[in-house]
């Protein structure tokens, strides 16, 4: 079993940036890649971005052009660079397997709050 730990969240103003980290182990990539998800208050968890084992990436429509996902397999880490943050980006961010794949245990997530 892989233990995932998310970090890097914080409270920022609209237009600012944050870099989230997801650490686990090299085994975290055994299920075809890693995805970032987020859950806003009173809403269901939603997909944000995926990085596949070959390096291919897919982004949710709401974050295209603003967020960048990357991975360092040797370190067992995945990152989410978030720029031009908006209030709608507020939520708890989690990392786990891509949609449709058996998940690892969910971590605690990292809180991102965007407000002026």
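^ Assign residues to that structure.
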């Amino acid at each position: 079993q892989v233990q995932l730990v998310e970090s890097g969240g914080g409270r920022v103003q609209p237009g600012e940036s944050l870099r989230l980290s997801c650490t686990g182990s090299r085994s975290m990539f055994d299920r075809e890649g890693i995805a970032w998800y987020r859950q806003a208050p009173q809403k269901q968890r939603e997909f944000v971005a995926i990085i596949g084992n070959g390096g291919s990436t897919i982004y949710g429509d709401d974050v295209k052009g603003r967020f960048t996902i990357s991975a360092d397999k040797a370190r067992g880490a995945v990152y989410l660079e978030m720029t031009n943050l908006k209030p709608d980006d507020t939520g708890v961010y989690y990392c786990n397997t891509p949609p449709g794949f058996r998940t690892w245990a969910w971590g605690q997530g990292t809180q991102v709050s965007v407000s002026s």
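The CA atoms of residues 63 and 110 lie 17 Å apart.
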